[in-house]
Amino acid sequence: MLKDQEFLKSKASYCLDLAKKMGATDASVTVGHSISETVNFRNKSLDASDRSDGLALSIETYLGKRRSSISSSNLLDENIKTLIQKCFETTKITPEDEFNSLPDKNLLAKQIRSLNLYDETRFENDKKIKYLKDLEESASKDNQIINTESSFTENKSNFILANSDGFCDGYKTSSFAASCVTVAKDENSMERDYEFTSKRHLSDIKQAIDLGNKAAKQTIRKLSPKKIGSEKISIIFDKRISKGMLSVFASAISASAIARGTSFLKDKIDQQVFTDAINVIDKPDIIKGMGSQNFDSEGVNSNTLQLVENGILKNYLVDTYNGKKLNLKSNGRSGGTTNLYFEKGNISYEDLLKKNSRSLYITETIGHGSNIVTGDYSVGATGFLVEDGEFKYPVNEITIAGNFKDMFKNIILANDLEFEYSVNSPTMMIEGMTVAGK
Amino acid sequence: MSIFFNKSDLTRQDADKIVSETLNNCDDGELYLEESKSESILLDDNKIKSSNYSSDLGFGFRAISNEVVAYSYSNEISKDSLKNSSENLKSTLKSIKGTYNHEIPKSNKKFYKDINPIEQKTLDSKLEVLNKVNDFLRKKDGSVKQVTASFAGEQKSIEIIRSGGEALTDVRPLIRFNVSVMLEKNGRKETGVYGIGGRQSYDDYLKNDNWKNVCEEAFRIASVNLESKPAPAGEMKVVLGPGWPAILIHEAIGHGLEGDFNRKKTSAFHDLMGEKVASQGVTIVDDGTIDNRRGSLTIDDEGTPTERTVLIENGILKNFMQDRHNARLMNTRSTGSGRRENYRHIVLPRMRNTMMLSGNQTQDEMIKSVDKGIFAVSFGGGQVDITSGKFVFNCTEAYEINNGKIGSPIKGATLIGDGPSILKEVSMVGNDMMLDPGIGTCGKAGQGVPVGVAQPSILIDKMTVGGTKL
């Protein structure tokens, strides 16, 4: 059973009271409980099942401008006592930092809107098994598919965030996720690809059959890839890769990277960083949104932020500590973005494919090749050569490279935006990047 | 005395009884109990940014029957909680029967001491080192604009209880000290990162002001990168320096030789056992038994003593790395490679310290033999697609080679290659094998575990360098 608000609140106030009693000037605490159940299938039969049930506690104690934190999964009162004692002892000898403080009281979330983030439906393991059977049946129809692995995870979570300024709130969330990884083989090669779905409500997830079909189709079309030569070419990023560009952008405009001076977007507020057709929005109050939240990890109210307007950088992602450093108010982004997306472009997906007589369509990248300090980008890639709007043949063992400063100013977005995940982008084209191959 | 049975109503006898009864009709499985204490202290932007202490306690209960693994974990160690888990496992495996394999090898060897590194150095003296690092680097050169330094320490105690009451225990210390520095000169910014660590106390690594060497190395890498030019794009010869660049071995072939991918036949290596997969002279081992190394383990997370497993001997594929589950299904034995990040995760076959052994050539000979290529000295991370065999890793320090001479430094570029064929492109193996400084964490299926790597300098005849300069 998922622990209720009352239980979590009683633990939270026990912690706050204790910290205060020991002499902490301020304190904040998060108590969470999460239950998740996963069933894994492989080649149409049960492979594994996994159940987890976990409590988590984290506490920060302040002594004036001194701060330190502890976290634990053991919520027995005796253990909490020992930990808070240890935390406060550490706080006493940690040097002062003028920017340490709880969030400003007037920025704290006042009322909790219902965003419909919790679906209490219990999807029994037998039903998960049925879903995965259907999924793998459809994924393995083609005899080039030699292995299928799939899983279904149901998660229910609840949490309370409380601080010594009187903030005390939290809510339940749920997620239902299914994924399928397929391996295909022909005489020349063996390839892997995947498809997944993840939603707050059970009734919104993709149909098992569609998921399996799509995973198989995406894998089979990668067989017998070729390596192409090194050249400058326009690159089309599939949605699952273009959303990654947004995540890089988000880390480059986090107040922490800006305050530390370690971002290629430092001092770029009110300047053109994308082409003027580009708008980037972070919207926390999407009903059933995978990234939706009422307040951030410090309890600060979060509203919709237009991060980029007509290509111009308008806002950083600000938390309390780094905000104070930059002389900015927190905008409720401690913990990062919520539902982040590029507004859709004007050109259709088909027209984007045809825009150049020859382009490279990227479906997967590997490696950690994004450098936030310099903006340099270089990753391994897999995809397809597209000629006159047609997918000609699969391509692999190549790298693509550029610098985000240039890449952002050459983005063209298709009009195929969908709200599937917490970060969403339409299909994206960037002209003039370098491909290294043969 | 077990640390796990004085905290609640669960006694050792109860645990034995529930474990034996649950696993009675299974092929394998165990109760895994874990207590970990960890700390992280971070200096950043001239200040102690955070100091965190964390304690975690929990169990993972696993039952295996034929190919099916049932797993249940909780962070409440109590009789009720364990019984609940037992019911979960039974309900998954209700119609399946097996015969429990009681056999588990024994060894008295230990590869690190039962210490708690967190308690062995006071917080004050840790803060003092971090502040010294900050002052030292900022005074060193006006181009230093940002300094980040951190300590991370951990003590993990585990106990494995098998059906029939057999118990195996291990206490694992682990520390890491890391310095990152950002320089700015003529409008250009570059970072350099260096770290050290392993399974000893902080002071074993920091004695004789060794923190200064860590600072100097981070500063040197950043300085080199300030002068870097765009990297070339295309296929060319690559000389890899000794030590940490062995993450090439880890990514290119290590993951592909893990038992699970080969049992499932999804690894590009699954049908290559006994075949030539590398040039003559290339020998690769995965070794869990080197004293105090980050990737070393006295026993793995299933209780099997670790060993030195020969993966490739003189170019020929000899062994995969196995946990008990995959070994049983592939009719072989565990190589002591069953690992998990913590009690929340299932065991998977994983690497420990993966090493290419020395040959007899020199780095000089390699450089001299290259007309046009790159010399890669240090790397960030890497990644592999097990099925297609394609892998990448990112250079953080590299130079052009022109006509047998080392030229200008080049910007961080990704190198990409094909796992099953890359080692056949190795044409020289150096005599200078070196272990990495103790900083590696390997990720697989969402689980991170500490690992080590080692290699001598090597020359690869053909690899694609992912720069921007055509």
Topology:
The complex is a heterodimer of chains A (438) and B (470).
Chain A (H helix, E strand, L loop, with lengths): L4 H18 L3 E17 L2 E19 L2 E7 L4 H17 L31 H15 L5 E19 L4 E2 L2 E14 L4 E10 L8 H13 L10 E7 L1 H14 L2 H6 L19 E3 L22 E5 L2 E2 L6 H7 L13 E3 L6 H6 L3 E9 L9 E12 L2 E14 H5 L2 E3 L9 E2 L3 E9 L2
Parallel strand pairs in A: 8-13, 12-17
Antiparallel strand pairs in A: 1-2, 1-4, 2-3, 4-5, 4-6, 6-7, 8-18, 9-10, 9-12, 10-11, 13-14, 14-15, 15-18, 16-18
Helix pairs in contact in A: 1-2, 3-4
Chain B lengths: L11 H12 L4 E17 L2 E19 L2 E7 L4 H14 L30 H18 L3 E18 L5 E19 L2 E11 L3 H5 L3 H17 L6 E8 L6 H8 L4 H5 L20 E4 L20 E6 L2 E2 L6 H6 L8 E2 L8 E2 L3 E4 L6 H6 L3 E13 L5 E13 L2 E6 L3 E5 H4 L3 E4 L4 E2 L4 E5 L2 E9 L2 E9 L4
Parallel strand pairs in B: 7-14, 13-21
Antiparallel strand pairs in B: 1-2, 1-4, 2-3, 4-5, 5-6, 7-22, 8-9, 8-13, 9-10, 11-12, 14-15, 15-16, 15-17, 17-22, 18-22, 19-21, 20-21
Structure overview:
The complex is a heterodimer of chains A (438) and B (470). With 438 residues, chain A is α+β, with helices and mostly antiparallel strands. Chain A folds into 2 domains: 216 residues, PmbA/TldD fold, CATH 3.30.2290.10; 213 residues, no CATH class. In chain A, 23% of the residues lie in helices and 36% in strands. Chain A is built from 9 helices and 18 strands. In chain A, a hairpin with a 2-residue loop joins strand 2 and strand 3. The longest helix of chain A is centred in the first third of the chain and has 18 residues. The N and C termini of chain A lie far apart (57 Å). The model of chain A has no long low-confidence stretch (mean pLDDT 95). Chain B has 470 residues and is an alpha+beta fold. In chain B, the strands form 4 sheets. In chain B, strands 8, 9, 10, 13, 19, 20 and 21 form a 7-stranded mixed sheet that branches. A 6-stranded antiparallel sheet of chain B has the order 3-2-1-4-5-6. In chain B, helix 1 packs parallel to helix 2. Classes of the chains: A alpha+beta (438), B alpha+beta (470). Strand 2 of chain A pairs parallel with strand 3 of chain B, so a sheet runs across the interface.
